[in-house]
Amino acid sequence: MTSIVFMGTPDFSVPSLRALARDYSVVGVVTQPDRPAGRGRQLVAPPVKVAAVGLGIPVIQPNRLREPDAMAQLQIWSPDLVIVAAFGQLLKPAVLDLPAHGCVNVHASLLPRHRGAAPIAAAILAGDVEAGVTIMQMDVGLDTGPMLSTRAITIAEADTTGSLTERLAALGAELLIDTLPGYLAGTILPRRQDASLATYAPQLKKEDGRLDFAETAEALARRVRALSPWPGAYCLWQGQPLKVLEARPISGRGLPGTVSGGLDGPALACADGQLLLIKIQPAGKRPMSALDFARGTRDFVGSQVA
After folding, report:
1. How far apart are CA 47 and CA 8, in angstroms?
2. 144 class by beta-carbon count within 10 Å (0-12 exposed, 13-18 middle, 19+ buried)
3. Which of 53, 70, 148, 302 is deepest in the core (most CB within 10 A)?
4. Tens of pLDDT along 48-91?
5. Mean pLDDT of the 119-136 span
6. 198 close to 112: Cβ distance less than 8 angstroms
7. What is the pLDDT of residue 40?
8. Positive/negative CA dihedral, 262, 265, 270, 274
9. Backbone angles phi, psi at 114, to 5 degrees
10. How far is CA 224 from the centre of its chain?
11. Rg (CA), the chain
12. Three-state secondary structure of the chain
């Protein structure tokens, strides 16, 4: 049976690991180290580690894959194939050349569109109609290797990065299992990417969540969805962050950033249209209905956000 080492870290990776463990011999898992999280900053294991331990698969968590101990363990495992799904580190030639069947990546976009660390958010931000998964051979570049298979799904109007990630994770696991037999048998041949069509999806930063009302309401509504659950969209009201958890574009005019009132709730004027606030989280408070907030905060409607 083909022996596999799996490399992945977040929730997106878990369905692929579970699917591989059912059909193949997964001899080891490589994931990122435990990280502090929450108010108590307690160390939390990445989802892939939790899944691997539950499956009884050995796990290593190097800070860098090039560390001597990590490379030594990979050589001991001596995999026929390495599968990568949102691992979080680029693989060097020493790893890429180790398995006889190379390294295969489960990438959450329709390559060559949205290469990089945040392809799902990028698809929503760009207003793409479709998202998808590409199974590809890995090389030393950033998602530049030849493709083995792709599969697409429609991006729903209400999709956030969270909801779309969940669907693409399941799709990726399904496509991976469908692709591997042909790849290992040599009947699925890699196809070179058209680099002229490539776009890039860099890792998200907290400041990417800041809403700029010089943009259109359509663009800002997509940003709210794309940055949910992390890092979250926000603006400033009375000098404090006001998180925008759910919103939709509506028609209307006004000075960008001005808050207007209506039967459906408060709306923020944009360069084109208005952003209707549905669910928000004021500084120091719990998430709440924007309509309830406006009713209880008389100076909100008519004020300015930035």
Report:
1. 9
2. middle
3. 148
4. 999 999 999 999 999 999 999 999 999 999 999 999 999 999 99
5. 98
6. yes
7. 77
8. negative
9. 60, 55
10. 14
11. 22
12. CCEEEEEECCHHHHHHHHHHHHHCEEEEEECCCCEEECCCCEEECCHHHHHHHHHCCCEECCCCCCCHHHHHHHHHHCCCEEEEECCCCCCCHHHHCCCCCCEEEEECCCCCCCEECCHHHHHHHCCCCEEEEEEEECCCCCCCCCEEEEEEEECCCCCCHHHHHHHHHHHHHHHHHHHHHHHHHCCCCCECCCHHHCCEECCCCHHHHECCCCCCHHHHHHHHHHCCCCCCEEEEECCEEEEEEEEEEECCCCCCCEEECCCCCCEEECCCCEEEEEEEECCCCCCEEHHHHHHHCCCCCCCEEC
Residue 41: what pLDDT? 82
Give just the sign of the alpha carbon dihedral 32, 38, 44, 47.
negative
What are 9's two structure tokens? Answer: 């870290």
Query: Which one-letter amino acid corresponds to residue 140?
Result: V
CA angle 195, 199, 204 (to 5 degrees): 145
- Asked if residues 76 and 56 have their Cβ atoms less than 8 Å apart, the reply is no
Q: How far is CA 196 from CA 193, 203, 237, in A?
A: 9, 22, 42
Reported as a single tens digit per residue, the pLDDT across 152-186 is 999 999 999 999 999 999 999 999 999 999 999 99
What's the token pair of residue 19?
Answer: 């699917």
